[in-house]
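Morning. Coffee machine broken again, so started the prediction first thing and wrote up yesterday's gels while waiting. Chain of 149 residues, entered below exactly as on the submission form.
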Amino acid sequence: MKSIILYTDGGCDPNPGAGGWGVVLLYKQHRKELCGGERETTNNRMELMAAISGLGALVEPCEITLYTDSEYLRNGITQWMASWKRNGWRTANKEPVKNQLLWQELDALCQKHVINWNWVRGHTGNTENERCDQLARLGRQQALAASKA
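Came back before lunch.
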């Protein structure tokens, strides 16, 4: 299996409002950057979209070290999802899981890979995390521009 390093970030301004996501994929000397956005969304949806887009860009099963500054994303995939699935996509409070379709899409993508999920503190000088933040802002700007066209 190829070993990939994947950085993701998503954000919204205001929240909810226009948002964007950014991805940096690293494999040996290769680098791929992706971004996108939506006119009306939330920061959590954009964090999920970043991970989905990054994993979806891989054409074969890989061993991935994924870095995110979103505790929502990391905790959701590593701690909460198993319970949600057992409980019919309900939280411990019996409420429907927010962003269920995105979580299910992410879960399906995760089945193809071996992923080590890592949390990094955002906006603290981590070069690739900062680049993902820039890409997320670009994705947001592109979504706003497209909605005006």
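The chain has a mean pLDDT of 96. Going to sketch it on the whiteboard this afternoon.
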